[in-house]
Design brief:
The protein is α+β, with helices and mostly antiparallel strands. Helix content is about 45%, strand content about 25%. Helix 3 packs antiparallel against helix 4 and helix 4 packs antiparallel against helix 5.
Length: about 400
């Protein structure tokens, strides 16, 4: 029941072979990866050896695990429950004392994700096997196969990958301390590549479409009354995309993904665009108010002129007069025409003066459109530079 060596100073070599049978899921919120693995343990028992010729050529014997010493190996990043582990109750023993046993597990392990390039990211996760009850002086972990063979084997037996694809597997041996003694470790560094096609179709392309729709809304006339409502609709659509992104990504205050920064930038630009539309609409509405005031002044002047002309000719008010305008004298008629021309000139000058609000609104709209494009281009260049440096 103890470590099977004839000399207690002898170190037991335990070789592991892990094969990935599937990548079942990746949870960005909880930072975990769920896989299906098959682990084989190889070691040597110095007390279980025999000559095949003395025992009818028997080259393999199955022994219950309860009868033998089994190395206690655990996974450091394991976050799954015990019900997901299925161990072979038997140990296969060969005449030279070498033995092995199998372990099948639906493994859920923790992994620190770097989601800056989401959804075009690759994740490197470690599956570290550690000896729980033996120090490095008595038990050392190793690999039964090398990296290339392990990668080829896992690729051949991979049943399901889903959203993620297996890119590479690396082996790293080392030691770890628990404060008072060192334990041997064997780490499998698994590199996973995300398949971004679904996110491009469902998220990035709609975001780009909404941005171009907001840019195109600058060509809509404010007088039609549809521009403001259209921009608010675009703003609400981007808010929906932000809610979808919130359900995917974990809550973190550092290293926000590029797509999150892009959504915030587009949302801010559209929000500023809505405020700019409100300002432009307010300025354009000032012109009709000023035009109404000028028309009132003109009507008062016109009625005053007619009243003076009637008084000079001894006529009563128009509604009480029986004489048509054509029976006035030539001088009075000419005078009325001059007054009309003068009033028309004053009205035209007043309208021209009040048209300055429309010109200011047009200038603001054009400047904001140019600034809108330049700001977005500068932001995209900033993201690209950060992406390359990363």
């Amino acid at each position: 029941m103890i470590r099977p060596v004839k000399n207690w100073t002898t170190t037991t070599q335990v070789n592991l072979e892990m094969v990935l049978y599937g990548i079942l899921g990746v949870d960005e919120k909880s930072q975990t990866v769920t896989t299906h693995i098959w682990v084989t343990k190889h070691w040597t028992n110095e007390f279980l050896r025999w000559n095949q010729s003395d025992f009818c050529g028997i080259d393999e014997v199955s022994v219950p695990k309860a009868k033998l010493w089994i190395p206690e190996i655990a996974i450091q990043q394991d976050a799954s429950d015990d019900s997901s582990i299925h161990e072979d109750p038997w140990v296969i023993v060969h005449p030279d004392g070498s033995m092995f046993t199998f372990l099948r597990q639906r493994l859920t392990f923790t992994c620190r994700f770097n989601l800056y390039k989401f959804p075009f990211d690759s994740q490197r996760c470690n599956i570290t096997f550690i000896s729980m009850d033996s120090s490095v002086s008595s038990l050392v972990l190793g690999s039964a196969i090398n990296d290339s063979v392990l990668m080829v084997t896992s690729t051949q037996f991979m049943i399901t990958q889903g959203e993620w694809g297996l890119k590479d597997i690396e082996l790293v041996s080392g030691n770890i301390t628990n404060g008072w003694r060192y334990h041997s470790t064997l780490s499998y560094t698994v590199t996973l590549d995300r398949k971004p096609f679904l996110y491009v179709i469902n998220f990035i392309i709609p975001l780009v479409y909404l941005l171009f729709l907001d840019l195109a809304s600058f060509s809509i006339s404010v007088d039609s009354g549809e521009k403001f409502g259209f921009k608010v609709t675009v703003l609400l659509s981007i808010s929906v995309l932000l809610l979808i992104l919130k359900d995917i990504l974990p809550s973190t205050e550092v290293d926000l993904p590029v797509i999150a920064n892009l959504c915030v930038a587009v949302f801010t630009l559209v929000w500023l665009s809505v405020l700019e539309s409100m300002l432009v609409s307010f300025l354009l509405n000032l012109d009709p108010c000023c035009d109404k005031e000028s028309k009132k002044i003109y009507m008062k002047k016109d009625s005053k002129v007619h009243k003076e002309a009637e008084e000079e000719n001894g006529q009563v008010k128009p509604e009480q007069s029986c004489f048509p305008l054509g029976k006035l004298g030539a001088v009075e008629l000419l005078r009325l025409i001059l007054e009309e021309v003068k009033a028309a000139r004053q009205e035209a000058g007043s309208q021209k003066k009040h048209r300055c609000y429309r010109r200011v609104a047009t200038i603001i709209d054009n400047l904001f459109f140019v600034g809108y494009i330049l700001t977005f281009v500068a932001f995209v260049m900033y993201i690209c530079i950060g992406w390359i440096n990363l």
